[in-house]
């Protein structure tokens, strides 16, 4: 009987921890599309690893999120709409790129501010974009990359 109570208490503790984690993950610090944000647009060659709700960061600080992703049938690029926090004014020559948190981390959108005197307004487009870089493609270039040009034609190394 005491073993059953211990198992029930352990199960209840695990269930409570799981519920607490789910509530924390659902609440998070996500920005919602509301009057506290304004839209910006960008067009990427590839948005691999990014989805609606992905973070938009400036100097490592979350300043917005991706509010929509659509495929442009004329350009075959991915058009993204960003919900940017009001009060963050970006110069018109700012760049936006998809970055990775590391080998095992996720992707996020990074903004690199420019130096132009004019700022982007609601609905404006960030022209300077860089899409996602595929880690697999980079590794394949590295592994199968440049052959040693000093190798002898017969397959052996040159003296």
Topology:
Layout: H1 2-27, E1 37-44, E2 55-58, E3 61-71, E4 78-85, E5 95-100, E6 107-112, E7 125-126, E8 128-130, H2 135-143
Parallel strand pairs: 1-7, 2-6, 5-8
Antiparallel strand pairs: 1-4, 2-3, 3-4, 5-6
Account of the protein in words:
It is a single chain. This protein is of the alpha/beta class and 159 residues long. It has a domain of 106 residues. It is 22% helix and 30% strand. It has two helices and eight strands. It has an eight-stranded mixed β-sheet with strand order 7-1-4-3-2-6-5-8, with no helix packed on it. About 3% of the residues have low confidence.
Could you name the key traits of this structure?
159 residues, alpha/beta, eight-stranded mixed beta sheet, 2 helices, 8 strands, extended
In whole angstroms, the N-to-C terminal distance is: 81 Å
β-strand amount? 25-35%
Question: Which strand order does the major sheet show?
Answer: 7-1-4-3-2-6-5-8
Return the string of H and E elements: HEEEEEEEEH
Level of helix content? 10-25%
Tell me, rounded to a whole number, the average pLDDT: 81
Rg, Å, rounded = 24 Å
Helix/strand-derived category reads alpha/beta
The shape, in one word, is: extended
Helix tally?
2
Uncertain stretches of 5 or more adjacent residues: 29-33
For the biggest sheet, the summary is:
8 strands, mixed
- DSSP E strands, number: 8
